[in-house]
């Protein structure tokens, strides 16, 4: 018996969330948090198995190094070199445990969330009473010690934070697009719950849920899953956005949405959400999905917004997969407002991007994009929107199997 046996879900308090989803909390053998999110119509028993593996201690928290030339923080997480790479189904670390597969999840599940075994940030968090510090260029960083006055001498800090894995299904292969509408709704409820929980942790400045899909993106596990990062800093992309809002006004997102809804780049305009290809799209396939009212993050969405999002998001992903004969690789990135700043002006949106520019061609980030950050589009956004819109129109609204 290990010291975490007492955290068996039989003893844990079950919490009823929105849409009839039930959350059950327990812990893995090395102390990492594990959460089960049960579908409203689940066939699972309330009792869950205990993780009885003998695990090594958790890795030390990685180190963040400050790049004085850009103001960015680089997390050096060497423990990630040893993570699983395209394992066979019988050794899938995200499948439920079996006698031959000592995976990360001890019980059968609908949706499961657990702390990453090889995190880029964490597992250490700063002391709750530690004030958020700022580097010489004003980047917030939760830490306990003041950085050196001269940034050229090299500033480093522990990579405080939290990295979680969210398993969409117990199946070995798939993606968000392969879920039923009910399961997609459970995943959305789980994401909203985790965004709220991570935002409340000490030292967390921004929370980022995302899904990578396809080997072309660099996916190392075919299991349908996403990740949730709790950063100790506001990310570079969001810092640039905050500067743009300062320049153009706090109603920037409202004006962008109005312009896009009136454009020929619109994909879908619903009661609560709008999907469009942005005017200055960087990627051959790029879709933004934005709430029609101002919402800072997923935790702030209403039940009605989540109800519309589940089938709409599924339909959008499935439509993208019909453009070519094989599934399309993508990154689905939920851009959210920082935890402590910009919440009245930064509107949450999903950015779905793919490097696929033809059936057998990918866009690679080479000289101009990779070295200088100067993007060159291969496909006109209006042409891309027409292709995606046609695919969306011929894709039926997903329904649960009878």
Intertermini distance: 42 Å
Give the CATH class of the largest domain. Answer: Alpha Beta
The fraction of residues in strands falls at: 15-25%
Residue runs with pLDDT of under 50 for 5 or more positions: 1-11, 142-147
Tell me which oligomeric state these chains represent: single chain
Helix percent reads 10-25%
What does the largest sheet look like?
12 strands, antiparallel
Molecular shape: globular
- For the biggest β-sheet, the strand order reads 1-2-3-6-10-12-11-16-17-15-14-13
Please give the number of β-strands: 19
Computed CA radius of gyration, to the nearest angstrom: 21 Å
* Number of domain modules: 2
H/E element sequence: EEEEEEEEEEHEEHHEEEHEEEEHH
Helix segment tally: 6
Summing up helix and strand content along with how strands pair, one would put the structural category as alpha+beta
Q: Could you characterize the architecture of this molecule?
A:
This protein is an alpha+beta fold and 402 residues long. The chain has helices spanning 181-199, 236-248, 252-261, 303-322, 367-372, 381-393; strands spanning 15-16, 22-27, 33-38, 63-67, 72-76, 111-115, 132-134, 140-142, 156-158, 162-167, 206-213, 225-231, 266-269, 273-276, 285-291, 330-335, 349-354, 356-358, 361-362. A twelve-stranded antiparallel sheet has the order 1-2-3-6-10-12-11-16-17-15-14-13, with helices on both faces. A three-stranded antiparallel sheet has the order 5-4-9, with no helix packed on it. Strands 7-8 form a two-stranded antiparallel ribbon. A hairpin with a 4-residue loop joins strand 4 (63-67) and strand 5. Helix 1 packs across helix 4. The relative contact order is 0.12. The model is unreliable at 1-11 and 142-147 (pLDDT under 50). Pathway: Carbohydrate metabolism; galactose metabolism. GO terms for molecular function: UDP-glucose:hexose-1-phosphate uridylyltransferase activity; zinc ion binding. It is an enzyme of class 2 (transferase). Residues 101-234 form the Galactose-1-phosphate uridyl transferase N-terminal domain.
């Amino acid at each position: 018996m290990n010291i975490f046996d007492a955290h068996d879900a039989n003893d844990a308090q079950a919490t009823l969330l929105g849409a009839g989803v039930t959350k059950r909390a327990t812990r893995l053998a090395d102390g990492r948090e594990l959460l089960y999110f049960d579908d409203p119509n689940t066939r699972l028993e309330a009792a869950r198995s205990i993780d009885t593996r003998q695990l090594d201690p958790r890795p030390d928290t990685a180190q963040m190094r400050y790049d004085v030339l850009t103001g960015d923080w680089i997390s050096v997480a060497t423990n990630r070199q040893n993570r699983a790479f395209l394992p066979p189904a019988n050794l899938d670390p995200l499948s439920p445990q079996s006698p031959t597969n000592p995976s990360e999840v001890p019980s059968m599940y609908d949706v499961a969330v657990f702390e990453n075994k090889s995190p880029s940030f964490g597992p250490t968090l700063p002391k709750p009473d530690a004030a958020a510090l700022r580097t010489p260029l004003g980047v917030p960083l939760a830490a306990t010690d003041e950085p050196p006055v001269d940034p050229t001498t090299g500033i480093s800090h522990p990579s405080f934070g939290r990295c979680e894995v969210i398993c969409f299904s117990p199946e070995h292969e798939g993606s968000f697009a392969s879920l039923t509408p009910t399961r997609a709704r459970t995943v959305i409820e789980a994401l909203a719950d985790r965004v709220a929980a991570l935002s409340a942790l000490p030292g967390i400045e921004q929370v980022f849920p995302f899904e990578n899909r396809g080997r072309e993106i660099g996916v190392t596990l075919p299991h349908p899953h996403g990740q949730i990062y709790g950063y100790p800093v506001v990310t570079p992309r969001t810092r640039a956005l905050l500067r743009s809002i300062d320049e153009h006004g706090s109603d920037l997102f409202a004006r962008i949405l109005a312009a896009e809804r009136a454009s020929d780049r619109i994909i879908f305009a619903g009661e609560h959400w709008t999907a469009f290809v942005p005017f200055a799209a960087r990627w051959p396939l790029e879709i933004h999905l934005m709430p029609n009212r101002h919402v800072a993050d997923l935790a702030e969405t209403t039940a009605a917004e989540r109800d519309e999002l589940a089938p709409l998001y599924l339909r959008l992903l499935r439509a993208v997969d019909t453009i070519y004969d094989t599934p399309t690789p993508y990154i689905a990135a939920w851009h959210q407002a920082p935890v402590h700043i910009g919440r009245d002006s930064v509107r949450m949106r999903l950015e779905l991007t793919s490097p696929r520019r033809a059936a057998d061609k990918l866009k690679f980030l080479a000289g101009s994009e990779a070295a200088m950050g100067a993007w060159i589009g291969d496909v006109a956004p209006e042409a891309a929107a027409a292709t995606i819109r046609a695919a969306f129109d011929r894709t039926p609204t997903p329904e649960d199997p009878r």
